[in-house]
Amino acid sequence: MSGSSSSTAVFRCTATGDAMITKRLPEKDAYQGFREVRDFIMRGDFRFSNLETTVHNFESCGAARSGGSWLCSPPGVLADLRRFGINILSAANNHALDYSYGGLERTIHYLNQAEFPFSGIGENLADAARPVYLDTPGGRYALIACTMSFHPENMAGNQTAALPGRPGVNGIRIRKRYQLPEKQMLQLKEIADALRINFKNDIIRGEGYLPQLKEGEQPFGELMFEKAENAQIVSSVDETDMKRITDAIAEARFMADYVVVAMHTHELSGESKETVDPVSIEFSRRCIDAGADAVIGTGPHLLRPMEIYRDRPIFYCLGDFIIQLETIQRAPDEMFARQQLDGNCRLDVLFNARSGGGKRGLSYDPVMYESVIPCWEAENGRLTGITLLPIEEHFSLPRSRGGWPAVNNRAGILERFAAKCKPWNVEIRIENGLGIVSL
Questions:
Q1: pLDDT tens-digit profile of 388-431?
Q2: What is the pLDDT of residue 7?
Q3: 3-state helix, strand, coil in the chain (%, to 5)
Q4: Residue ranges with strand state E in 87-173
Q5: Please, is 120 exposed, middle or buried when counting C-beta atoms within 10 Å of its C-beta (0-12, 13-18, 19+)?
Q6: pLDDT attached to residue 334
Q7: Residue 385, C-beta contacts closer than 8 angstroms, at least 6 positions apart
Q8: How many alpha carbons fall within 13 Å on the CB side of residue 389?
Q9: In sequence order, which residues have a C-beta less than 8 Å from that of residue 401 and are 6 or more positions away?
């Protein structure tokens, strides 16, 4: 049997950003603006979102560390995402283990129970890294989801003949090299010696439990610096993790007609969250080089540019699709402790303390409530069209009714996105309230 797709196959995809959905959609018509968003999403056969929450009935303890807030949503939100037309999910992100391994396992249980295709988390690393497939009348799609933002203990572990693997995310580790000129290296050594910050590791290194220092290296606690001409941080993708992704792409390429990689990251470059970091560029382009047809980025909660690389789209961040951070129903003691509060305090006290009475945070920045939903078509791997729908998640409404997406073509969202993309050689014209990417 041939593994090639039909010469006339047309693939249609729509993608949304982070779905931080913590409350249920109202019944029937849901809310004003719901239908327009749903109808646009339904233009695609492959209809994606990033599930940025855990899904269970608080059946597990909160983890010692979280992705920021400890997010947990009732299992019914999966049906609500279906109502938007979403039919495939990434679950790999920095919130996947907010409620420890038990919360992850319950999320997997409810996703399976809802028969919702998902990728990026699993009972072990092989499970988390495995592509998930979506069969449609127009062809078979594959999704491979991963995250660059996670605590080390949240990465799934390999299963062996001796022991089961560790539940977790399909993590992409980033290797960072910290470089300083010789003069600053000497200053760093003086500071390290004065603080005695390296003494413990020096003893352990002497016993052979840490690698011996190479010429030009200077440790500073857990960080390792090396001598260079300029002060800089050089980041790169861990090659073991990159190979795991490219192997998954190769398998998916054999099994499916159209392969999408979802990348979740909070990596920064410079002083703005909107700037694309070099490691995201490296990773995304290497995925395309390995055979992926598209890369969807999520994470920083605002729009980053898109580019077209080798005639394939890379969306470096699609911002938020749903943002409901202050309507979680419970929170563990650790979340209160961050604000120097007792764990038995009320949630309104917690959120007012964190936001300074509504003056700071994601929930109070209108930029975090603006996004676009792309719909693109490809034939034989080549792009034939990309249309962008501007949305805004009801920033002006109270938290009890806000956070849901609605079309907004009056707030300059498309104009600002087009300006971000122009340096990436992507031209966007605006017609009838939609963005049209010139190919």
A1: 999 999 999 999 999 999 999 988 999 999 999 999 999 999 99
A2: 53
A3: 30, 30, 45
A4: 88-90, 118-119, 121-122, 132-136, 139-147, 168-169
A5: buried
A6: 97
A7: 376, 377, 436, 437, 439
A8: 25
A9: 31, 394
Radius of gyration of the chain (CA): 23
Beta bridge partners of 227: 180
Return the DSSP state at 4.
Answer: S
For residue 32, give the amino acid letter: Q
Q: What is the pLDDT of residues 256-315, one digit of tens each?
A: 999 999 999 999 887 789 999 999 999 999 999 999 999 999 999 999 999 999 999 999
Q: What would the pLDDT profile of 80-128 be if each residue is shown by its tens digit?
A: 999 999 999 999 999 999 999 999 999 999 999 999 999 999 999 999 9
240 burial via Cβ count (<10 Å: 0-12, 13-18, 19+): exposed
Q: What is the DSSP letter of 153?
A: G
**Rounded Cα–Cα distance for residues 71 and 146 (Å):** 19
* CA atoms of 225 and 217, how far apart (whole Å): 6
Residue 43 buriedness (CB in 10 A; 0-12 / 13-18 / 19+): middle
Which residue type sits at 198?
N
Spell out a b/e string for 151-185, using b for 16 or more CB atoms within 10 Å of the CB, else e.
beebbbbeeeeeeebbbbbbbbebeeebbbeeeeb
CB atoms near residue 57 (< 10 Å): 12
Residue 384: which H helix or E strand, with range? strand 382-392
Q: Roughly what angle, to the nearest 10 degrees, separates helices 239-255 and 278-289? A: 40
Tell me the one-letter amino acid at 419.
A
Whole-angstrom distance, CA of residue 170 vs CA of residue 165: 13
Q: Check residue 4 and give its pLDDT.
A: 46
The torsion angles phi and psi of 289, rounded to 5 degrees, stand at -60, -30
List, in sequence order, every residue forming a beta bridge with 386; answer none if it has no partner.
Answer: 376
Best CA proximity match to 53, nearest among 282, 318, 298, 401:
298
pLDDT at residue number 410: 87
Query: Amino acid letter at 402?
Result: G
